[in-house]
């Protein structure tokens, strides 16, 4: 060791001017960069956790059932971040509806909005079956759907409180149109017919159009899954259950056939020309009248129901008496009759001159009209290029009598869709890596100070 030190020069080599200041400056800069890098890495990590947290599939926690069902005073707009019933069931619903547009991109969403809070969910089972027309149970806890892809061998019952699905076999493959759900939830009326393979097969409305022209009425016992055909009622156009749930009015041609749950017919009531029995809600709560609306499409002879089109056609509601009595006066400015709060109070969908849709309560005795809720129909659909349209709207009719209106809060849409969460997570992880590579290097490494 002594010999090694002996080889060192007596005087140390001279350093370049300002060398010490340069070293200190670079050292301070490296410390600052490391501190900034650590802070940035923590920030990216927090963002990553925030992005992935909605993707975590926690045990379903449906909204707690409130004492009285409610409807938000305005319904939230379109969002790609809305989760599904199957992934995160949110509890009973007050409304089921289709939402979106298809002008440039097919981005429609079948949605339910909560009856106990501002929860929104996509009905993923409907998407899987090409968004067929569906029925919402009167108590808002289930959705029943057929299949718009063509003939189907079953109906599908989706529980909105658990996300579970129950297949109800039909015994054969047929096209299906769902017509009405009884007030007690026990029975569903639907129309079914084999489909012909024509040039129109595979288009969006082939199932509904063909079954509307040729379908035979069937009565489904929801509990047992047993269907009872009523061959005499063909083609079944629209239907509405009586308030007691034990009788049913079914329109065939321009007549409403009144039957019981065994299919036995006991009366017929003429339906005025150019009009149809209001689907689902066409029997008044006092049992005295049938409510009719103008044809939305071309009428029973054409099969063009128009029931799955956007809400746009303003009409009226007129009443046909089932026995002696004076029917209520005509109710104008109605796009769709959705249900009843009492024998003197109906809930309808309306659309103003600018195309904005809303729900309103109309009193038959005083003609007073009160807006209950509004739908967002601005240009937020199809990536902000198109207006949002509303269609295939249903309310939980059994909840309307006790319905209140709540101030709409922040929409609770559930966990993000998994593909979106993965994309965001990978992107943030890449940013974190780049930040680490950029700030983790020591400045000047691999370079010698200038002589």
From TrEMBL:
Its keywords, alphabetically, are: Membrane, Transmembrane, Transmembrane helix
* Membrane spanning stretches: 36-56, 416-436
Q: Does the keyword Transmembrane helix apply?
A: yes
How is this protein named in the record?
A: WD40-like Beta Propeller Repeat
Naturally occurring in which organism (per UniProt): Micromonospora mirobrigensis
């Amino acid at each position: 060791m002594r010999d090694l030190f002996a080889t060192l020069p007596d005087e140390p080599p001279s350093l370049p001017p300002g060398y010490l200041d340069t070293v200190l400056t670079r050292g301070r800069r490296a410390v600052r960069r490391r501190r900034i890098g650590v802070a940035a890495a923590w920030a990216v990590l927090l963002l990553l956790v925030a992005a992935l947290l909605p993707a975590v599939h926690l045990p379903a926690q449906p909204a707690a059932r409130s004492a009285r069902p409610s409807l938000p005073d305005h319904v939230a707009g379109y969002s790609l971040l809305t989760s599904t019933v199957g992934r995160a069931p949110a509890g009973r619903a007050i409304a089921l509806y289709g939402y979106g547009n298809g002008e440039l991109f097919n981005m429609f969403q079948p949605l339910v909005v909560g009856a106990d809070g501002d929860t929104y969910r996509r009905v993923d089972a409907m998407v899987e079956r090409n968004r067929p027309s569906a029925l919402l149970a009167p108590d808002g806890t289930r959705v029943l759907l057929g299949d718009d892809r063509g003939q189907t061998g079953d109906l599908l019952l989706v529980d909105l409180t658990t996300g579970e699905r129950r297949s109800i076999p039909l015994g054969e493959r047929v096209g299906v149109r769902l017509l009405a759900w009884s007030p007690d939830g026990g029975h569903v009326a639907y129309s079914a017919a084999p489909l012909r393979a024509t040039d129109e097969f595979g288009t969006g409305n082939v199932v509904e159009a063909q079954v509307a022209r040729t379908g035979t009425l069937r009565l489904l016992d929801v509990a047992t899954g047993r269907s009872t055909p009523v061959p005499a009622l063909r083609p079944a156009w629209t239907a509405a259950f009586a308030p007691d749930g034990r009788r049913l009015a079914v329109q065939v041609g321009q007549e409403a056939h009144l039957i019981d749950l065994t299919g036995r017919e006991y009366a017929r009531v003429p339906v005025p020309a150019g009009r149809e029995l209001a689907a689902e809600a066409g029997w008044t709560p006092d049992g005295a009248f049938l409510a009719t609306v103008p044809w939305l499409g071309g009428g029973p002879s054409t099969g063009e129901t128009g029931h799955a089109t956007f809400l746009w056609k303003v009409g009226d509601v007129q009443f046909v008496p089932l026995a002696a009595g004076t029917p209520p006066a005509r109710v104008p400015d109605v796009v769709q009759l959705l249900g009843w709060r009492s024998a003197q109070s109906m809930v309808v969908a309306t659309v103003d001159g600018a195309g904005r849709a809303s729900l309103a309560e109309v009193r038959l005795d005083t003609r007073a009209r009160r807006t209950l809720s509004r739908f967002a129909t601005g240009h937020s659909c199809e990536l902000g290029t198109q207006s949002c349209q509303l269609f295939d709207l249903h309310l939980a009719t059994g909840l309307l009598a006790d319905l209140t209106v709540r101030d709409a809060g922040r929409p609770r849409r559930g966990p993000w869709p998994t593909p979106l969460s993965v994309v965001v997570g990978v992107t943030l992880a890449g940013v974190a890596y780049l930040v680490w590579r950029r700030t983790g290097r020591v400045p000047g490494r691999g370079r010698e100070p200038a002589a």
